[in-house]
Amino acid sequence: MTTALLETIAGNAKAVDNNEIPARYGIELLGAREGFRRTTLLETARQLREIAAVDLSVAFGIWAHTMVITYLRTADTDYVRYVLPALENGTRPGVTGMAPAFKEAAGAGTIDLTATPGEDGYLLNGTLAWASNLAEDAVVVTAARTPAGERLLVAFDGCAPGVTLGTPFALLGLNATSSAGITLENVPVPHGQVLSRDFDAFISAVRPTFLILQTSECLGVADAAIDAAATRLTGLNEVLAEDVAEVRERVTHLIHTQELICAVLDDDAVVDRVKLLELRLAAARAAVDATALEVRLAGGAGYAQNSPASRRFREAAFIPVQSPSETQLKWELRRAKQEG
C-alpha cells in the first residue's frame, strides 16, 4: 500500500463521511493499482487494515468487494473467469449477500432466499435485508435454498430482471457505502452462475478470510483512534493515560495475532474456528473501546459531527452489529467451545 494512495483516501474521508463522494471510488482506486491481485491473505489483511485506519467507509466497501472476489475465486467456474477481471480491476463492484449463509452454517439462522428450478437454471425469490456497494452494474453473491432443500451459492447482476435495489439506509456513519436491502422476484440464475452446490465445503473454505478481513476493519480504525487519543494526554486528560496504554497494548497484540494467523492460513494450514472467532470478537471490542476513548479525550471536538474523532466513533458503532454481530459471535464462540 503506497503512502500516496493512503493520503488520497485520508484526504477524501470527510467528503465520504458527508456522502459527497461514494465509497465505491476506493474500489476503483485500488483496482486501478492492482490492489485486488494480492497473492497472500497477509498482504490483503494489512492493506485493508491500513485503509480502515484512514477511512472505515472506504474499507468497508473494499472488504465487501474483496469477499466477492474471494467467493468467485473459490468457485473457479467458467462464469467466474468471465466476470472476475472486471472486479479485480475495480470497474464493477462486488456485493456480498452472504450473512444468511454464514448464519445457517453456524446454526444461528436460516437461508431466506428460495431457488426454484426453471428451464435454464433457477428463479430466485426473497429479500436480503442488508447489502452494500449496491449498484446496477454490481455482481451479487448470495445463497438460496431449493424446494428439495439443496443449498446453492449463486451470483447475479445488480441489473438482472426482478432485482430491486432498495433506497440506501440513513445511518450514523457509512452513508456513502450504498447500503440497503435487495428484493428478488423471479430473478433468473442460469446453471452457469451457480458457484457451488457443496454448501458446507464452500463456507468452510471462505470463512477464515471472511473473519480475518473483518478483523482488519476493526483493527484499522482502532489503531488510528488510539494513536490519536495518545496525542491528547495532557492536562486533565492525563488521568486516562492508563486506559489509553491498555487499549494500545491490546490493539498491538491483536494485530500481531492476526498476522500470525494469516501466515498460518497462507501456508494452507487449518486454524481452529475458536481462535478466529476470539480474534474477531476481541478486535470489535477494541475498535469500540479505542474510538470511545478518543472521543472522550477530544472533548468538544469529539462531539463535533465532522471531526475525525466523531467520524471514527460513529463508524465503529456499526461494528457490533455488522454480521456476524457481537451477539452472534459470542453465541458461536460458546457453541464452538462446547463442541470442543
UniProtKB/TrEMBL annotation:
One of its GO terms (molecular function) is acyl-CoA dehydrogenase activity. It comes from Corynebacterium humireducens NBRC 106098 = DSM 45392. This is Acyl-CoA dehydrogenase. It comes from the Bacteria.
